Amino acid sequence: MPTSLNSTTCLLCGTKLVKNGRHPSGTQRWRCTSCGTSQTRKRPDLTQREHLRAFVSWLTGKRSQPEIDGTQTGRSFRRRTAKCWTMRPHLPPCNTIHHAVMVDGIWIGSWCLLIALSDTGHVLAWQWCSGETTAAWSALLTKVPPPAVLVSDGGTGLPSALRQAWPHTWHQRCLFHLQMNVTRHLTRNPRTKAGRALRALIQHLSDVRDEDQAIQWQVLLNQWWQEYGYLTRERTLLRNGYFGFTHDRLRKAWLLVHNVVRKDLIFTYVRYGNPRTTSPLEGGVNAQLREMLRRHRGMSEEHRRRAAEWFLTVREIGIDEALATATTAIEKPRPEPREEPEGPALYDTGLDSGEGLWMRAGWAGRG
């Protein structure tokens, strides 16, 4: 009779089974009291779950496939867990309002992964995108309740998304990224006195702790402008015949600092006590994510994306809850090849004598 492999009745006579010891693997063995056949109950759901658990443990851990499988090549492990690449985890929706949220993007192949991290170190949400655009940042911010302060590295598209999604949230520019961007323009050893003074002033931002020090720093910045500001407006004739700024790098560094101070994005941490850098996100989550991808180098781009999702989910809610949230990823069907119409092609890549590509021979054209 057609019965399930997990049925408690005999597959031959339909009699109810009774327990009959255990299999050497530890599985419960069942025996039919009528015909005497013995069998074990199959649990494909448990088998799939354990395969997925071993897959996630390998993906987020440091053990290799042969070490987990106990073989020389790990081929059996890859065969058992091949379907696990189609399983996609999901973080539960974030409903808690946090004091500060740090956001940053990390590139994985041709995809950019935007991550939101709370000031307590919890991953709140992530968003895949093709670049740090306003639409991508808006999609990420709408997944998280508006906090008091947002800390970022000044990525493009974020200010517009912040005004749309979280209009009442204060913005803190990461001081470390600000210092690095200024150093990129001025280098570590500026040639001019004005460049050395401006870079030293930016490096002293790390020493500002209270409002008095913040006011004193802004006074020093204003003094720098009064002494060296004219250099940012000087022009000279370039080799191409056009006039350009004489101290272009100094001008770019000054405009970068001036815009951050003018928009009040630099000393938000003094008033509200929020983190002043995105180091907990970049030095913590992003660094660990890069290390995980480095251990499993050689994966395809799609597998790297799935590995990043499993890593963030397991880090936040643990492997047991992550397995419960896994669903099968929906794959887009491949487009079917277009059928070629019957008959001669009107436009094609072949050559034809009617196009005048060859030299004519014979009596054609003679009068």
What does this structure look like?
The structure is a single chain. By secondary structure, the protein is α+β, with helices and mostly antiparallel strands. The chain has a domain at 1-42: N-terminal domain of TfIIb (Single Sheet), CATH 2.20.25. The protein contains 12 helices and 12 strands. The protein has helices at 44-60, 65-69, 75-80, 134-141, 158-165, 175-186, 193-203, 211-228, 248-262, 268-272, 279-295, 301-325, and strands at 17-22, 28-32, 38-40, 87-88, 100-108, 111-118, 123-129, 149-152, 170-173, 235-237, 243-245, 327-328. A 5-stranded mixed sheet has the order 7-6-5-8-9, with helices on both faces. Helix 1 packs across helix 12 (301-325). The chain is flat, with a radius of gyration of 32 Å.
The secondary structure category is: alpha+beta
Q: How many strands appear in the DSSP assignment?
A: 12
- The fraction of residues in strands falls at 15-25%
Spatially, the strands of the biggest sheet line up as 7-6-5-8-9
Cα shape: flat
Order of helices and strands: EEEHHHEEEEHEHEHHHEEHHHHE
Mind summarizing the main beta sheet? 5 strands, mixed
| Span between termini | 94 Å
Rounded Rg: 32 Å
Question: Mean pLDDT score, rounded?
Answer: 87
And the CATH topology of one domain? N-terminal domain of TfIIb
**CATH top-level class of one domain:** Mainly Beta
Brief digest:
By secondary structure, the protein is of the alpha+beta class. The chain has helices at residues 44-60, 65-69, 75-80, 134-141, 158-165, 175-186, 193-203, 211-228, 248-262, 268-272, 279-295, 301-325; strands spanning 17-22, 28-32, 38-40, 87-88, 100-108, 111-118, 123-129, 149-152, 170-173, 235-237, 243-245, 327-328.
